[in-house]
Specification:
Radius of gyration: 20 Å
Order of helices and strands: HHHHHHHHHH
Strand content: under 5%
Helix content: over 70%
Oligomer: single chain
């Protein structure tokens, strides 16, 4: 059984979740860029090697060609989206817990925490889907010779002009398929690890910084272990030319399995896992630190 944190405060969760999200983006965006480029690189022409042979090759080529800032291409879109997205994410988790409580002091089981986490994934999709679409398009154009978008806002304008709101929200169903189960795993594993790491007779809110970093980092690993296959499909679908996959993710899945096999669903695995630990450790540490500060500064909010 998991011990419950203090009752949720939407205002505090907004700011603490947003701060945690900003920490996550700064810590994890370089490897996210590499992940997307690996996932979307075209199939090798017979007799020619792949553009990137793996995670470290992609990192080296990106760094040599575009410099340190090349690793942060497309970061403006997630930075703009992280504050409301993580606020909604953490709020959604808290709401999911409250909905399952008959009394405020009820202790939830781990399956109930998983269900609460899944609700947070539903909540964030409205912001996550267009943000991911823009981020992926900006990341892959940096790897190609053609520059179509001047930045995030120009990308939104062009997508809307070409296909309307559907163009901006392309890949929403795949974002849901990725985020709903992955968010359940994310929050459940974080709460589970916090409880394991809490000394006897102490509260999880009193955990040390190394313990929070470990729990948050491992929660990120568990999250992505679930999320990678739908994330590969989403990246491929969101960056494909209009009309290439008329039946959506089913067409993407068939093409990948037919041409590259089951292993293709785990493209970018190394980059994802290298990113997951430090990025999510930074996220949860940022959230916990901000929440402690808000509880001290605004005890009645």
């Amino acid at each position: 059984m998991a011990k419950q944190p203090q009752p949720i405060s939407p205002g505090k969760n907004f700011f603490a979740g947003g701060f945690g999200g900003v920490c996550l983006v700064f810590a994890g965006h370089p490897l996210d860029t590499i992940k997307v480029r690996l996932q979307t690189q075209p199939k090798a022409v017979p007799g020619q090697p792949l553009q990137y042979s793996g995670t470290f090759d992609c990192f080296k080529k990106t760094f040599v060609k575009e410099g340190f800032l090349g690793l942060y291409k497309g970061m403006a879109a997630p930075i703009i989206g992280v504050t409301p997205m993580f606020a909604i994410c953490f709020f959604g988790f808290g709401l999911g817990k409250k909905l399952q409580q008959k009394h405020p002091n009820d202790i939830l089981t781990y399956p109930q925490l998983f269900a609460a986490g899944m609700l947070s994934g539903v909540f964030t999709t409205a912001i996550m889907a267009p943000g991911e679409r823009i981020k992926c398009l900006l990341q892959i154009q940096s790897a190609s010779k053609e520059v179509k978008y001047a930045g995030p806002m120009d990308c939104v304008k062009q997508l809307y002009r070409e296909s309307g709101i559907r163009g901006v929200y392309k890949g929403t169903a795949l974002t849901l398929m990725r985020d709903v189960p992955a968010s359940g795993m994310y929050f459940m594993s974080y709460e589970w690890l916090k409880n394991i790491l809490t000394p006897e007779g102490r509260s999880p809110s009193e955990l040390s910084v190394p313990s929070i970093l470990f729990a948050g980092g491992m929660a990120g690993i568990f999250n992505w272990a679930v999320a990678i296959p739908p994330d590969v499909l989403k990246s491929r679908f969101q960056t494909a030319p209009e009309g290439k996959y008329p039946h959506g993710f089913r067409d993407v899945l068939r093409e990948l399995l037919r041409e590259e096999g089951v292993a293709s669903l785990y493209k970018g695995f190394t980059a994802v896992m290298l990113r997951a630990f430090p990025a999510n450790a930074a996220c949860f540490l940022g959230f916990e630190v901000a929440m402690k500060f808000l509880n001290w500064a605004l005890p009645n909010l």
